[in-house]
């Protein structure tokens, strides 16, 4: 990453993301010690809000920032040159083609390369933002990566409250205390289907064990 881009990324986190997440909203983290401090690693989380990625990035110290690689849909985040520049440079995202261009092209090739470099992927296995505070069926992309890199830890996270902060289709931010629950790293069970099911069940289990907050 060029030095100037790295500086801009850190400034964005310090001046925008952290004040938004820690001051405007408020963050309550359970089992933070399960968060990987170095890569390669994969974080998988539920997806309800425009700012889910900001919350995940804010969990890590600034020293790890340049190794964080959110994974996002290319058709949405590269739809114009200004958003594309911000996505690729400041957020350091890895864009994924949701419609596979051809059998010879692996849509996860950049994710695999990031893991080989020791980076940390931030992935939403549901694919797109779901209904407020609800989980959708998990897709199998992470299982393909885990099969290729069985020793890489995959840590499940459940975020509660973000579906009320800035849900799909809304543009007005509502201050809510966000609870973040981290699970144990998941072992490779021997098949993609079994791993995807285990990953989904791990996040569901965190959601079911989470105490419910009363609306303010």
Itemize the secondary structure elements and their pairings:
Layout: H1 3-25, E1 27-30, E2 41-45, H2 52-58, E3 68-73, H3 74-77, H4 81-90, E4 94-96, H5 109-116, E5 120-123, H6 141-148, E6 154-160, H7 162-165, E7 178-182, H8 192-209
Parallel strand pairs: 1-7, 2-5, 2-6, 3-4, 3-5
Antiparallel strand pairs: 6-7
Helix pairs in contact: 6-8
Describe, in plain words, how this protein is organized in 3D.
The chain is an alpha/beta fold and 216 residues long. It has a single domain, classed as Glycerol-3-phosphate (1)-acyltransferase, CATH 3.40.1130.10. Helix content is 38%, strand content 16%. It has a seven-stranded mixed sheet, with helices on both faces. The longest helix is centred in the first third of the chain and has 23 residues. The model has no long low-confidence stretch (mean pLDDT 88).
Instruction: Characterize the biggest β-sheet.
Output: 7 strands, mixed
- Tally of strands: 7
CATH-defined topology = Glycerol-3-phosphate (1)-acyltransferase
Question: pLDDT under 50 segments (min length 5)?
Answer: none
Supply the CATH superfamily name: Glycerol-3-phosphate (1)-acyltransferase
Strand order of the largest sheet: 1-7-6-2-5-3-4
Q: What is the overall number of helices? A: 8
Mean pLDDT: 88
Topology pattern, helix = H, strand = E: HEEHEHHEHEHEHEH
- Please tell me the total number of domains: 1
Helix content: 25-40%
End-to-end distance:
42 Å
Which structural class is indicated by helix and strand composition?
A: alpha/beta
